Amino acid sequence: MTTSHIARSISVVSHPFILSAIATLLSASNHHASVALTHELILIIAVLGFIAISFSAWHVRTGRWQHVDAVKPHERKVLNGFLAVLMLLSSLLAWRYFPEPELAYGLLIAGTAIVIALLLSRWLKLSLHSCFAAIAAGILWPSLIALGIGIIITAAVYWSRLILQRHTLAELIAGSASGCVCALVYQVLSAAHYARV
Fold first, then answer.
1. Cβ neighbours around 41 below 10 Å, total
2. Residue 5 — pLDDT band, cuts 50, 70, 90?
3. Are residues 176 and 131 in contact, defined by beta-carbon separation less than 8 angstroms?
4. Please, are residues 73 and 104 in contact by the beta-carbon 8 Å criterion?
5. Cα 193 vs. chain centroid, distance in angstroms?
6. CB 187 within 8 A of CB 138
7. What is the pLDDT of residues 15-73, one digit of tens each?
8. Number of alpha carbons in the 13 Å side-chain half-sphere of residue 68
9. Confidence band for 197, pLDDT divided at 50, 70 and 90
């Protein structure tokens, strides 16, 4: 297996959707969500993942994109716009219909992170991989284990994205910084919710 194959595998495993989904599930578990609610969470996240993957696959099948990873700038803009709308609308639905707040908050900050990337795209190709690695670790704060795993994942993401030449170091650092801000917002919202109940 070549270095680029390893880098691509890390990039796939550390996909923003996968990291945020795992972190949201673990956060709900930390707040003692019931088994039934956890199963509902898994189902909802799986459906959202299926919608996102289907959107990308449809663009490849119709010849609009070269790859499901949306490598070209115009492809990435379309994908990020779709994902931002999907996450933010899903956040509103989760807030209305899902009894635990982690799903709504997780979708809200995921959508916000993507909007930030879109707003900065004219000047900077912000790394959503490094952004969501920071979000995942921040959602699970103050767990030192989560922080340690987050640092390891972030280092792997930096290495893989640099090897694949998808981002510069500045773009990766900017992604991590925006992810830390989004994770802080998640923690503030979550703390405010659990202080009321």
1. 23
2. confident
3. yes
4. no
5. 22
6. yes
7. 787 787 777 777 776 666 677 777 787 788 888 888 988 998 899 899 888 877 777 88
8. 12
9. low
* Helical H segments across the chain, by residue range: 3-13, 16-30, 35-61, 73-97, 101-120, 128-139, 144-163, 169-196
Confidence (pTM): 0.84
Which amino acid appears at position 169 of this protein? L
- Dist CA 190 CA 58 (whole Å): 36
How far is residue 92 from each of residues 3, 53, 97, 99, 109, measured CA to CA in Å? 42, 21, 9, 13, 12
Residue with tokens 């969501």: 132
Rounded-to-integer distance, Cα 27 and Cα 181, Å: 17
Residues 134 and 176 sit within 8 Å (Cβ to Cβ): yes
The one-letter amino acid at 185: V
> Which residue type occupies 61?
R
Residue type, 153: I
pLDDT at residue number 154: 87
Q: What is the pLDDT of residues 84-139, one digit of tens each?
A: 999 999 999 988 888 778 788 888 999 999 999 999 988 998 999 899 888 888 88
Let me know: does 78 contact 51? Beta carbons within 8 Å.
no
C-beta separation of 80 from 117 below 8 A: yes
